[in-house]
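User: Please fill in residues for this 301-position structure.
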């Protein structure tokens, strides 16, 4: 008995116990989905669950416990009970979306780690465009919008050790054919800065977007851009693509901290690691690497 208590209290065993509770909470065990990416890194292993609390939570547990944590492992779920958004917001994840998390063990300099967020956003935009011809754009840092409504979101969790990245979990949620009014109401109730949401089907009025085709396209894009980063190639080109997709560059924005307005200013540029170069109203120059913003019209204070 004492042994059990001891094991339960050591960090490693408590993580295993946590993982066990995550598992027993799932509807059923996973399917190994094969998208024909076995010769690649990203998507070589795909664990597909029907219902799960959160693919992000499970991917982090896998990465932490050295179970199913090979570089490029993907966890995808048909629906999530406790989908997680940025800044501890809930992410409504009913059937009809692509809800996936990807474990990456990046072989890039620590200083370039923010580029994972940049390439993820670019990959999501390009994959959606390839499959549906929809021209999405990126609200800094990595919200994917169309007609000013949110179509997809990206959540990045990193684990660093001695300034070295052990793993990064990239969580991606894309609304393909979800019930928009339902999602809007759940967002309004848990969000200080509500954004309107939309879905691919809502924008193009077709009902035949295959989640797994979109996912395959997306994983291929991530693999492509990640390999450029790892070879230290075309960094400036990637930032150029990100800037072209940005809806934030040149705009007047308000920066929030914990839901409260902090200051406002004009976005002058995006630096070479995805940081926002902002000229504040008090003329101070500031570079933001994370944060929450809203975009305003030029003369709208
Ligand atoms: C955001 O707030 O914009 C990020 C949302 C990220 C949602 C995805 S859905 C798959 C993965 N699992 C989660 O619990 N969250 C991410």
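Assistant: Residues filled in for all 301 positions:
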């Amino acid at each position: 008995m004492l042994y059990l208590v001891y094991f339960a209290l050591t960090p490693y065993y408590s993580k295993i116990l946590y993982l066990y509770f995550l598992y027993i909470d799932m509807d059923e065990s996973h399917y190994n989905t094969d998208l024909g990416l076995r010769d690649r890194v990203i998507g070589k292993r795909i664990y597909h669950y029907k219902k799960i609390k959160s693919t992000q939570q499970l991917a982090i547990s896998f990465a932490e416990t050295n179970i199913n944590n090979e570089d490029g492992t993907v966890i995808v779920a048909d629906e999530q009970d406790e989908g997680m958004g940025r800044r501890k917001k809930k992410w409504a994840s009913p059937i009809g979306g692509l809800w996936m998390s990807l474990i990456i063990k990046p072989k890039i300099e620590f200083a370039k780690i923010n580029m994972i967020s940049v390439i993820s956003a670019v990959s999501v935009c390009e994959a959606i465009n390839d499959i549906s011809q929809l021209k999405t754009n990126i609200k800094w840092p990595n919200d994917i919008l169309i007609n000013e409504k949110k179509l997809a979101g990206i959540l990045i969790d990193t684990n660093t050790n001695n300034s070295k990245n052990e793993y990064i979990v990239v969580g991606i949620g894309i609304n393909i054919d979800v019930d928009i009014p339902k999602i809007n109401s759940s967002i309004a109730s848990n969000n200080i800065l509500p954004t309107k949401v939309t879905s691919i089907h809502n924008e193009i009025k077709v009902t035949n977007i295959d989640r797994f085709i979109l996912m395959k396209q997306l994983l291929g894009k991530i693999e492509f851009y990640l390999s450029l980063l790892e070879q230290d190639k075309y960094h400036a080109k990637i930032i150029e693509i990100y800037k072209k997709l940005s809806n934030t560059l040149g705009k007047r924005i308000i920066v929030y901290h914990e839901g409260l307005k902090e200051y406002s200013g004009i976005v002058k540029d995006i630096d070479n690691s995805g940081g926002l170069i902002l000229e504040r109203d008090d003329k101070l120059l500031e570079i933001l690497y994370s944060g929450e913003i809203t975009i305003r019209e030029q003369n709208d204070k």
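For context: The domain at 11-245 is CATH 3.30.930.10 (BirA Bifunctional Protein; domain 2).
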